[in-house]
Structures are given as C-alpha cells and as structure tokens.
Amino acid sequence: MFSFATTFILTLFSLLTLVVSAPIDARDVYVPPVLYPRSGTVWSAGSTHNVTWDISDPPKQITNKRGMIVLAKGNLLIGLDSPLAKGFDILNGRQEVTIPADTAPGDDYSVVLFGDSGNNSPKFTISAPAP
Ligand SMILES: *[C@@H]1O[C@H](CO)[C@@H](O)[C@H](O)[C@H]1NC(C)=O
Fold first, then answer.
1. What is the distance in A from the centroid of ligand 1 to the CA of 94?
2. What's the whole-model pTM score?
3. Nearest atom in ligand 1 to 48's CA
C-alpha cells in the first residue's frame, strides 16, 4: 500500500516541477546524479557526511540553483518538513548533512537531491547510532 502512496507523491512532485518549469526550455532542467551515498554505504544515525553529486555537465542556464536534500525511506520522502540541507548552491557538488540521531536503522534509505527536479541516490543503510 505504501508504495502506491509514495509513488503517487513522487509523481506529484514531478508533475509539480513540470508545471512550474513548463515555460522554461527543457534543456535548462538540471538534475545532477547523486554519487554518494551509494549502494553499500552505511551511515550511522547522528553522523555527518558529505552527499556528493556529479556537476560535470551543467546546462548554461539553471532555473533553480538552490538545492535541497531530503531523506527517503523506501520510496517515501521522510523529513520533507525538515530537509537534511537546503538553500545551498547546486553547483557545489557536495553538501554536508547530519543524519538525525533518532533515525530508525534500515537498509532502504536514500537521499533525494532537489534542484529543478528530484534525483534519488541508490539505497543505502543507516545503522544504530555509534555508542
Ligand atoms: C565535507 O567536505 C568538506 C570540503 O571538502 C570538508 O571540509 C568536510 O570535512 C567534509 N565533511 C565530512 C563530514 O567529511
């Protein structure tokens, strides 16, 4: 049941982005792929890491240079109200984030990088806080 709702939410986001950016040239939509965390990454709750993404091929015009990083579990965006980071320059290629200490351990987490649109990292693992 969850996956339908979450797919719906993600689809809604994409549609919203399309509507918002409709008058703008499609080539300007910039969705850099997330490089880290990658599949197999383990971050403990409460720890701080750099999320990195590929900025090797930016378009000349970027409609929204400000980025936002949101944690997702399964296909569900969690913490949309409290993004891991926001307002940073999407062309930095990296952003430090701290995983909330109360994040439940799980192996189906991902981070979603939002610029003009959203882009998921591969699924990675969050373990219990380090002792
Ligand atoms: C993230 O990257 C910056 C710049 O390279 C570095 O100064 C910082 O120590 C890094 N943070 C972590 C948690 O690795």
1. 9
2. 0.72
3. 13
